[in-house]
Prior knowledge:
Nucleotidyltransferase, domain 5; 2 domains; five-stranded mixed β-sheet
Amino acid sequence: MMPVEEIRLTAKFKVDFTDADEATISEIHRLFKEYQRIVNELIEYAHSHGVTSPRRLWYAKYRELRQRHPTLPSHYINTACRLAASIYESFIELKKLGMCEKEKPVFKRWTIWLDDHLFKLDVEGWKVSMAVHGGRWITLKLLYGKYHERFKGMELREARLVLKDDNSLYLYVTFRQTVTLPEISADAKVIAVDVNENAIVYGNDEFIERFETNEGIIRTRYFLKRRRIQSRIRGRGLRARLLEKYKGREQCRIKEIYYRAAKEIIGKAREVGATVIIMEDLKRLNEKNMGSKELNGRIHRWGYRSFQRILEYQARLHGLHVKYVDPRNTSRTCPICGSELKENSNGRRLMRCQKCGLEEDRDVVAVRNLTRRYYEEYMNTKT
């Protein structure tokens, strides 16, 4: 039997307020304010009682909140419990890692989680209906384009409603799609992907390709631009708007590069008949102190996990497996004899093996080692 996997995709819609009346807009703002107060009350309870389970939080606070908010649909309290528990659990993890100095978390965002009882999406007319106070429903138009057509026919899951500082409203809808993946055999072709600050190198023992991202350079430029804004702009409102503007530009520019890189890698995989994409397990890289303040700043600005997530869901959409392997010393171990590599004096990225004489770029070495480690792990799991 062929393995089956569930893929979740998120579509972003901007709400069109052109035909919305004042009563509808007022109801939406009321909903956001009330939801934020409920989430913060739940976080306060979770903090004082050490609760990280949404179910325990629901049992402790649901009846009280229903009495105080009788006209609010009950499922808003359900999703608020999930959100509050998620925020507090993340806060606890950051505290353990020494990455948070606050005494307790505070929910400041204008975000509402919606389950399938709180909204209905019309994918033919691109409208959304939402449950509001008193058992009423309001309908809002959504701005859409060709990008959204791909979601027709997918199974609807949940959504988030986000109110921006400029009062624009966005709906993020999660869809589900089931895909069939091919069986993995011992001789399955793979493509290993090594993500670096300014380049993405991919391939296997037969070929190596390099995709220049210049991400480190782009992010450093935007970082310096934001620092100049912070030092030169005195007005708090103007400064905040400019910072948000350039942050958005940076994210859009980097995300476009990520999607182009993912498209190129998927295309190459289909061309050579590869069925597995291999990546380094870098989930905890940002939690490490890498040494200098400058290097730590670059690591924290680097969006390697965002690219991995984009490549992962794109790969699965195209019926490819995605596997993660241990990243330790992939660029410092000889892929031929396993000896430790030394940096060549002729170039910072050129590595040389003193035992077998291999001389190769460290990114190429990493790709070959990722390929080798995958096959080793695969054989170990089969024996």
